[in-house]
Hints:
single chain; alpha+beta; 8-stranded mixed β-sheet; 12 helices; 44 strands; 17% helix; 36% strand; globular
Amino acid sequence: xxxxxxxxxxxxxxxxxxxxxxxxxxxxxxxxxxxxxxxxxxxxxxxxxxxxxxxxxxxxxxxxxxxxxxxxxxxxxxxxxxxxxxxxxxxxxxxxxxxxxxxxxxxxxxxxxxxxxxxxxxxxxxxxxxxxxxxxxxxxxxxxxxxxxxxxxxxxxxxxxxxxxxxxxxxxxxxxxxxxxxxxxxxxxxxxxxxxxxxxxxxxxxxxxxxxxxxxxxxxxxxxxxxxxxxxxxxxxxxxxxxxxxxxxxxxxxxxxxxxxxxxxxxxxxxxxxxxxxxxxxxxxxxxxxxxxxxxxxxxxxxxxxxxxxxxxxxxxxxxxxxxxxxxxxxxxxxxxxxxxxxxxxxxxxxxxxxxxxxxxxxxxxxxxxxxxxxxxxxxxxxxxxxxxxxxxxxxxxxxxxxxxxxxxxxxxxxxxxxxxxxxxxxxxxxxxxxxxxxxxxxxxxxxxxxxxxxxxxxxxxxxxxxxxxxxxxxxxxxxxxxxxxxxxxxxxxxxxxxxxxxxxxxxxxxxxxxxxxxxxxxxxxxxxxxxxxxxxxxxxxxxxxxxxxxxxxxxxxxxxxxxxxxxxxxxxxxxxxxxxxxxxxxxxxxxxxxxxxxxxxxxxxxxxxxxxxxxxxxxxxxxxxxxxxxxxxxxxxxxxxxxxxxxxxxxxxxxxxxxxxxxxxxxxxxxxxxxxxxxxxxxxxxxxxxxxxxxxxxxxxxxxxxxxxxxxxxxxxxxxxx
Length: 723
């Protein structure tokens, strides 16, 4: 009996790996898949955090910092440079607290062993060879914006709408005293259009600070409310709607040495936009693009930084539809008499070389592709390093372009989507990339010849233990019969081609966004994977009007938003219906923001096609949307009454037949409640029956745990009414 027992035990041990392998794979929960979920980060592979120390690449961990590749690109075998314990031994804890995490360390001095580190109470500069703190600065509490200037170790900041500068010794200078919600200093303006994301611009050496000043006292308040009080209080948002009075912006320049502030003499700011502020390397000149409210012309204008005087117009670009400068000019690091400008004037976003006096010298890039990002320069080869989709519209790859002749060199493998940072001297790239069948790889790239060395080995999937659907990519023709549109198709778990499945179209469709690219799983959203687990097909196609396909592709929707986009989406529906495993009687649609507009539009324009829709934060009528974006793509309601009328969804409310749920954030400052509430009123008047759900305290997008709640609600709606 003992012998038999031993044999049985041995057999069970031998069979154990097979039984483990035979275990059914796990199903996802939304807590697994969504960024706000409690288990999301537990099942995601950790990436290697890196930073550049000059041209040397370091790995920044929680507890230590290690050298990966030295300044000549040689493998440094993860040599430890310093540890958190060593830093904390050098810190004045009473004044600065502790360093808790080195993962976000930066290295501001390429030739010196100095790290900039965040502490409990501010920031320190730490010399790891001398093991001492070189400089420390405390955090500015309740700041609305901050901008640190390394050369002078000064911080510009905004507090209670006013602008201040704190110098390296911690002394504060208040630059404005009349700041308010209606008169703002140092903050982003023009509602973050034209590439604007901040309002503070230090000169290269830190001798002066340029800043925005926005007067919006003349702009109508939209009445948002704050319910976190015994009696709800008003929390109004200055919201200039299309065709209505907009704000006025000016640009100031504060000079550190004299304490003097001057304003750029740009003239009357009424109905004008100022964007893409840049400094000359010698700090003598400020450049910015200026547009009239019509947005059909952009001028690059130079100003004297010392006096604010207007020097002149260096470049002018016009387009009958619109001109949209998105990037400031950038001077060549080896030749301060020349700069690079980005423009879509030939139909695609490309780079142009100019002399400092505005003479165009050459077009550096050309072709039917878009330059997506200018990453920097390789001074050794006198080249521009950039990201573009020259290999394929849905791929983002890395290139070196020689300035003297425009010769372009592919630096990566030509596949997938690559996102990279460039070393201080421009010699190397830290490249994080993926492709449809590979989740992530991190490489150290030579910026001259593309030679790759691994930072972190390839990860094929983050979900080896889970049921993951089949995800495919391909193209269909647009409604014009000629243009290729790229799609993603997510099939249900345990897909059976002999079955019929309900299908959901996920849509955005508007400018400055795309949904399909050849990154991992064709860039499928976590919710799509969850829906595949529930037995749905999910289909996504980037219609004309979306980004990175050239100006004609994007602007084909000009003055009639929704028309061309819906035509292309219906080509996608025709493709879905051609698939034998799609149940054409069970089609749904879902999207957010512009996608909410598209969802509502499709439900009301094709009521016999779509059975169920969920529209998040939708635009309903473009006359309720903001000036800058709305008028760029639609002109004003006064100029384009027919376009605004035909794109409004209010007259279409009577057509609603299927189940439509509208979901909004109560405090949405982007697609304000007037959109969805006016649609509810129109449906009530017409006798149609949408459903409505509100997230109090949330804005245009749900944040934190509400992300999980939101996607559970969306899923339940399709489960209740589409299956």
